[in-house]
Amino acid sequence: MDVELLLKAAIMGVVEGLTEFLPISSTGHLILAGALLGFQDEKAKVFEIAIQTGAIFAVILVYAQKILAVLRGLPHDAPARRFVTHVLIAFFPAVILGLLLGKFIKAHLFTAEVVATTFILGGFIILWAERRSETAVRIERVEDMGWRDALKVGLVQCLAMVPGTSRSGATIIGGMLLGLSRPAATEFSFFLAIPTLIGAGAYSLYKEREWLSWDDAPLFGVGLAFAFLSAWVCVRWLLRYVAHHRFVPFAWYRIAFGVVVLLTAHFGWVNWHA
To answer: Taking the domains of the chain in order of start, what are their residue ranges?
Structure first.
């Protein structure tokens, strides 16, 4: 396979891994990166869906010990069953709305105006969320969440169906506004990503299966590997970051990136309908 194409796959994998779990939207960054690399055909869209799996494997590896403990405890441990139940409750709204609105969103909302607006608006929401008083925190740990808290976070996650919103941004910042501490909101966002991204990816790949070919295995393998490695680094860094820092820098980054989206669309540098 063409070395240049494999290099593009590696770059796209790094972009996916670094942006999937930060509150800055991987979708917008992948569109921009794909346009700059000339990697925007139908196969590229399937590729972008597939490499999410690499990013999810990174989360599974980071939390492998806790995930195994929960799985072992399911038959007899009430806290383990409660934890899994909360993740599934939070996952359920995205399943329903995704099936109902997926085609409409793909057909009408992948525009520069929508992406830029959600980037900029999301930045201001993060700034607002970070101005809240520490007394607003009700839940310090994921284990302290109730099923209503999980459902609310799941409903907020549905906002990420709008391109440029950011799934992690919606769940982390939404969780904070709902009373979760910054570390608890971040950790729950990671766990919720496992069924959400695996489910969405599997469904999308099934629908687009005619674009899959064994000849592209090296391309997908490189993308998956680099998405995994970059996401692993990013997740570990983010967990340390949220323990002592706020998300304000990401807010200003989102606002600046939203302006970049408008400029690239205005001058015709990027096809944001791709």
So the answer is: 3-266
Which residue is listed with tokens 């990401």? 250
Q: Which residues contact 116 (CB under 8 A, 6 or more apart)?
A: 164, 258, 259, 261, 262, 265
- State the pLDDT at residue 41: 81
Per-position DSSP letters for 80-116, written without gaps between them: HHHHHHHHHHHHHHHHHHHHHHHHHHHHHS-SHHHHH
Residue pair 230/59 in contact by the 8 Å Cβ criterion: no
pTM: 0.90
d(CA 22, CA 190) in angstroms, rounded, equals: 10
Give per-residue pLDDT as tens, 170-213.
999 999 999 999 999 999 999 999 999 998 888 888 888 888 88
Contacts of residue 185, Cβ cutoff 8 Å, sequence gap at least 6: 153, 171, 172, 173, 174, 175, 176
